[in-house]
Amino acid sequence: MSDRGNFSGRIGFILAATGSAIGLSNIWRFPYLAGQNGGAVFVIIYLLCIFIFCFPVMIGEISIGRAAGRDAYGSYTRLGNKKWGLLGLTGIVSSVIILSYYNVVAGWAFGFFVEIAFNNLLLKKDFSSFFGNFVNNISANLFYSFIFLLLTSLSVIGGIQKGIERANRILMPALFLVLLGLIGYSLTLPHAMEGIRFYLIPDFSKITAQTIFDALRLSFFTLSLGVGGLITYGSYVKKSENIVYAASVVTWADTVVAFLAGLMIFPLVFSAGQSPAEGPPLVFIVLPQIFQDMGPVVGKLMGSTFFLLLCFAALPSCISLMENPVAYFVDEKKYQRKNVVIILTAVVFIIGLPSLMSFGAVPFLNQLPFYKNRDFLTFVADVTDITLTIGGCLMCIFITYKWKIHNMNAELATGNSNFMGTLTQRYINFTIVYVCPLLLGVLSILVI
Ligand code: PHE
Ligand code: NA
C-alpha cells in the first residue's frame, strides 16, 4: 500500500483523526444543542452516547479501513461485496453534502475573524442584528466560504503526509489554551454560576425524545463517524499501530474540547442575559458581545484569536470530509488526486449555495414549508445526521454478519497483542454485535 501513502507513525493518525473530530460541532453545535435541550440532561445523554455507542463504532470503522487498505467503497467491497459497497458510497455522498454546509459555517467563523481583526465589528451594539445582516450578505459569504474551501482543497492536494499532517499539527494546543483563558474570564462575570448550574446540574424532567435524538446524532457527528472518513484514514494506518489506543485518544480529546466549550459559553450566555436556546447563531451572537465588553484592545485580540482558532478547528474536519470522496476516485477510478479535488471543490461549492443563502437572503430557503419552516442549512444538517447515525449502525451489522467479528478482533490485535480476552474487547464486541443493531431498529421505527 506504500503507493497510497501512510501516516508517519502513531502520532500522524491520531492528529489527523483528532483534527477531523474536533471541529465546528464541538464549539458551535454542541453548545447550541445543549442550550436548546435543557442543558445538563443533554450533556449527560451525549456523554453516554459517546462512550456506549460511538467509541466502539469508531474502532470498527478504523479497523475496516486498515484491514482493507482502501477507500470507504473499496473497503466494503473487499471485505464484503459490491452490495455492501453501496454503504460506503452513501457515506461518501454524505461526506460531500456535509462539507457543502459545514464550509458555509466555517465561512462565518472566517468572516467574524476578519471583521473583528480588521474592521470595527466590536463597535457594533446589537450582535443579533449584526449576525442577521452578516449572513444576509451573499457576496461576502461567497467570498469567505470560497476562501475556506480553497484552503481545504489545497491541503488535500498536498497528499497524506504533507498536507493533512502539517495542517493538523498547527494550533490545536493553542485552541485549548484560548478556551481555558475564556473559561477563566467567563467565570468571573456576574451570574456566571447560573450558567454553570444550567450546564452541569441536570433537571431530568426536561428529557424528551428530542433530547435523546439530538444527543445521539451529535455524538456520531462529532466523532466523524458513519461517513467512512475514518475508514479512509484507517487505511493509511500502519499495521504496527494500536487502534484501540488511538481511538481512545481521539474520543477523549474531542469530548474534552466540547465540554470546555460549554463551560465557556454558558456562563457568558447567562451573564449577558441571553437565552441559551438561541439555536445556530448562539456563539456568533453571544461571544462578540463578550469580546466587546472586554474593551477595544483585549476584545479585539481575544475575539480575533477565538474565531481564527475556530477556523483552525474546522479546517482539518473539512479536509477529512474532502479526503473521503477523493480517496474513492483515486483508489477506485484511478483519477489523479489533483483533478478530483478541483472538480469536487466546484461541486461542493455549488451544492452549498442554498445553505449559504438560507439565512434570510432567500425567504423560501429560510423557512422551508415542508420542514417545519426551518432553514435549508438546518434541514441538510438534520438529514445528513440521520444518514451517518444509521450508517454507523449498518457498519456494525456489516461487521457482525458479513466481515465477522473475529476478523475485526484479529485486526485490532495486530499492533495490540494483549487485546484478546480483555474487558475492552468484550465491551467493543458487545456494542457492535448487539447494542448498535438494536439502536438501528429503534431508530428506523422512529424515522419511518
Ligand atoms: N467531527 C466534525 C466536527 O465535530 C465534523 C465531521 C463529521 C467531520 C463527519 C468529518 C466527518 O465538527
Ligand atoms: Na467533534
Write up this protein.
With about 450 residues, this protein is an all-alpha fold. The protein contains 20 helices and no strands. The chain has a single domain (about 5-445), classed as Up-down Bundle (Amino acid/polyamine transporter I), CATH 1.20.1740. The chain has helices at about 10-20, 25-35, 40-70, 70-80, 80-120, 125-135, 140-155, 160-170, 170-185, 190-200, 210-220, 230-235, 245-270, 280-295, 295-335, 335-355, 365, 375-405, 405-415, 425-445. Helix 1 (about 10-20) packs across helix 15. The longest helix has about 40 residues, at about 295-335. The chain binds phenylalanine (PHE) and sodium ion.
Bound molecules: phenylalanine, sodium ion
Strand content: under 5%
Shape: globular
The SS-based structural class is: mainly alpha
Total discrete domains? 1
Instruction: Kindly report the CATH topology.
Output: Amino acid/polyamine transporter I
Gap between N and C termini: 42 Å
Range of helix content: over 70%
- So, the CATH homologous superfamily? Amino acid/polyamine transporter I
Subcellular location: Membrane
InterPro entries: Na/ntran_symport (IPR000175), SNS_sf (IPR037272), YocR/YhdH-like (IPR047218)
Keywords: Membrane, Symport, Transmembrane, Transmembrane helix, Transport
Membrane topology: Multi-pass membrane protein
